[in-house]
Write a structure and sequence with these properties.
Elements lengths: L8 H7 L19 H16 L3 E4 L5 E5 L8 E7 L12 H16 L7 E6 L12 H7 L4 H6 L8 H7 L11 H6 E9 L4 H5 L3 E7 L1 E10 L3 E2 L11 H17 L5 E10 L5 E2 L2 E10 L2 H21 L3 E10 L2 E2 L2 H10 L5 E4 L4 H5 L5 E6 L15 H18 L1
Parallel strand pairs: 3-4, 3-5, 5-15, 6-14
Antiparallel strand pairs: 1-2, 2-4, 6-13, 6-15, 7-11, 7-12, 8-10, 9-11
Helix pairs in contact: 1-3, 3-13, 9-10
The structure holds glyoxylic acid and manganese (II) ion (2 copies).
Length: 405
Amino acid sequence: MSGPRPDTVSGLLAEIADIGRDPVRGGYSRPVLSGAELSLREWFVAHADKRGLEVTTDRNGVIWAWHTPDGSYADAVVTGSHLDSVPGGGAYDGPLGVASALVAFDRLSAAGVGGRPRAIAVFPEEEGSRFGVACLGSRLLTGAIDPARALALADPGGRTFAEALRAAGATPEHLGPDPEALGRIGTFVELHVEQGRGLIDLGQPVAVGSSILGHGRWRVTLSGAGNHAGTTLMSDRRDPMVAAGALVVGVRRLAREVPEARATVGRLVPTPGGTNVIASRVDLWLDVRHHDDATTLALVERIRQEAELAAAEEGCSAVMAEESFSATVDFDAGLRDELCEVLPGAPVLATGAGHDAGVLKAHVPTAMLFVRNPTGVSHAPDEAVEDVDAEHGALALAHTLEHLA
Ligand code: GLV
Ligand code: MN
Ligand code: MN
């Protein structure tokens, strides 16, 4: 026999290595409620069952796997992450936290750790890569998004979240704030692959999280005049693709003028999208991040003005709409310091990536652990974690959960 042992993080991840591979983009595409994501959820439930954990799926599709030594769910220590991915993403963003939670629970069970109840939570649509709003499961759970708005969100194929839920056998009418489920969480700790170079540069395998950069998503719709690519004179065009190109360059210029800002256009959809067709409309999505929320919003406003200018230059119009905004989150300082005591020598790192832990922070003491990523690349197939670091991470999570228990 060769390959990683099944009771290790790398062994667990090896079991799902073929689920949701993307032959076109490379890496993994595991959008929420796709066949791939549903298979991953089944995989998790099978592992939770095998461990004797009590599994429930709440009204918002969050899976909970419980260990309740005295039958109580109150003041639980909860860990977990997500199983959905960005299009063409890596193997670790999300699944590393879920697999590490299973291994950490194994260690606690083997050591006979009792104390507070504990649970693993798996959140749906963390990436927002199908329905556009990131951390949709935790936002619904906490009431941070109106369920009617969530149900009406549509995927790129025009299917609404409500329709996709129904097709998967869920009951969309049940969606919404769940004070009972939320109220059970006493402390939440999410382990995640690091999505940058912090731990490479520090030569450390595991870090304690300090904060999440504020971030949001905006949709810009540029409208012009669809027409024939061969018969329309260059002087007669109102081409929204030209306005979109100018805007993409403008976004970079404006973001570079703001120290520490990050702004990205990662998705652009022309309608109707034909090689010999001048588009009638282009939708593009903007992701803007900065630690100071007012600075983020001021930059977005400058980009909105830039969009109007770029559109006017081309005889087009521009409309910008916010799809989601998450303020900068500083994790619970007391909990962070406790984790630093449990994990001596672990550095404290901020992250530029969003997480369900960030949404939960408004309601419960929350912390994060990051595991070294030797490429420093994430949201791309090159994302990586060494097996030895993955086990280190699970051990750090086990120590943390045991301390909190
Ligand atoms: C999620 O990973 C995000 O930061 O957008
Ligand atoms: Mn993630
Ligand atoms: Mn991600």
